[in-house]
C-alpha cells in the first residue's frame, strides 16, 4: 500500500484557481474566506495574514485562513491536526477560531492546552440562510447609512460589538475599527433605521461574494427590544442586499439567543449548519 504524501504550506496567487474550487464546494459556509480571497488575491498586504493549504499527493484537500481569525475550510481530521500544529509552531495568537463546529471543536481540543482557557467559547451557533424574498413585510424605514452619518451610527456599532463580543473595540485598535465601519458605510453595506437623530436599528454586510453575503452586527436599541422591530428591519435589509449585493443572505447567531433566532426564522432564514467560535 502506497503512503500518502502530505504537506501544509502558505498559498500564493498561483493557487487562487484551485483554492476557489475548494471554497466553492460549500459557497455559503465558506463565504468569509472566499470574500477575502476575491478581494486580496492572496496578496499578504491586503489579506492581513495567510491562507494555508493542506495537500495530499499534491492535491489541495483543505485550507485555513490564518490571520486575526483562524477559519478552517473543508477541513478533514488530518488537515485539522496539521493546521493546529502549524499554528503552534508559528506561535500565533489570533483573536478567534471561527467556522463549522465539526472543524472548530477538534482544532480547539488540540490548541486549548497551549492557548487556553478561552475567554468565550461559543460552541452552538446556528448558521442560517435565506435564498428568497423575506417571508414578512419589510420595514420601509430601513435604508443605507450615508457617510456623513458616521458619527451618528458609530456609537451603536461600538455598543453592539461590546455587547456581542464582550470587548470594547476602542480599547484595541480604535483607528482600525473606525476605518472598518467607515469602509462598510462607503461600500453601501451598512443599513439602519434613523429617526430624529437616533439609531433604532442597524446592521452591516460583513462579507460578500457574487453568490452570497453575510449579515453581522444586528442591533436594536435596548429600550426598543421585544417590540418586533428586528424581524421587519432585517427583512428590509434582506430585500435590499438581494437586489444590490448578492442573491443569498447568511448569518450566524448564538444558539442561546432565542429571540434573535425566532426573529430570523420569521424573516425566512433556515438553520443549515452549526458554527462555533472560540474567542480569546
UniProtKB/TrEMBL annotation:
Residues 140-280 form the N-acetyltransferase domain. Gene3D superfamilies: 3.40.630.30. Pfam families: Acetyltransf_1, DUF4081. This is GNAT family acetyltransferase. It comes from Aeromicrobium panaciterrae.
Amino acid at each position: 500500500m502506497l503512503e500518502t504524501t502530505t504537506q501544509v504550506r502558505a498559498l500564493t496567487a498561483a493557487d487562487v484557481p484551485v483554492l476557489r474550487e475548494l471554497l466553492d464546494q460549500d459557497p455559503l459556509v465558506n463565504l468569509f474566506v472566499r470574500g477575502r480571497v476575491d478581494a486580496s488575491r492572496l496578496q499578504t498586504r491586503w489579506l492581513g495574514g495567510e491562507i494555508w493549504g493542506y495537500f495530499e499527493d499534491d492535491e489541495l484537500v483543505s485550507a485555513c485562513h490564518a490571520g486575526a481569525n483562524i477559519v478552517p475550510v473543508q477541513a478533514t481530521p488530518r488537515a485539522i491536526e496539521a493546521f493546529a500544529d502549524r499554528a503552534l509552531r508559528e506561535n500565533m495568537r489570533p483573536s478567534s477560531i471561527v467556522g463549522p463546529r465539526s472543524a472548530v471543536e477538534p482544532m480547539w481540543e488540540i490548541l486549548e492546552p497551549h492557548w487556553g482557557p478561552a475567554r468565550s467559547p461559543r460552541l452552538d451557533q446556528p448558521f442560517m440562510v435565506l435564498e428568497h424574498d423575506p417571508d414578512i413585510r419589510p420595514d420601509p424605514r430601513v435604508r443605507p447609512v450615508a457617510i456623513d452619518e458616521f458619527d451618528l451610527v458609530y456609537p451603536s456599532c461600538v455598543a453592539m460589538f461590546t455587547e456581542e463580543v464582550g470587548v470594547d473595540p476602542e480599547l484595541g485598535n480604535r483607528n482600525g475599527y473606525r476605518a472598518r465601519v467607515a469602509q462598510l458605510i462607503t461600500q453601501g453595506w451598512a443599513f439602519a433605521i434613523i429617526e430624529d437623530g437616533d439609531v433604532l436599528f442597524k446592521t452591516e454586510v460583513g462579507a460578500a461574494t457574487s453568490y452570497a453575503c453575510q449579515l453581522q452586527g444586528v442591533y436594536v436599541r435596548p429600550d426598543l427590544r421585544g417590540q418586533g422591530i428586528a424581524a421587519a428591519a432585517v427583512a428590509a435589509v434582506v430585500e435590499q442586499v438581494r437586489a444590490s449585493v448578492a442573491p443569498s443572505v447568511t448569518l450566524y447567531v448564538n444558539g442561546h439567543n432565542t429571540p434573535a433566532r425566532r426573529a430570523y426564522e420569521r424573516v425566512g432564514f433556515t438553520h443549515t449548519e452549526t458554527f462555533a467560535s472560540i474567542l480569546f
